[in-house]
Amino acid sequence: MPLSLDEVRRIAQLARIGVSDAEARAVQAQLNDIFELIGRMQKVDTEGVEPMSHAHGSALRLREDKITEGDQREQFQSVAPQVEAGLYLVPKVIE
Question: Which pLDDT score, from 0 to 100, does residue 45 have?
């Protein structure tokens, strides 16, 4: 179902987008092309096609879960203005 020029103008108005007549005609053509593509895709026979969670069916290469850096918390907190029990203290900003 193609969009009319008035419908494109109405959509632009609802979106608070100012469009000239030439822009409205260009957008109308683009939207109608998109709707035509959607219509063609809906007609494709997908009977027997198993749903996929991802477009790539391959498995991911996983890396070993290992620690690559040492604990530097003491070093980082040594330059903080206020620290207590390993936590950074910040000024209260909401009453």
Answer: 93
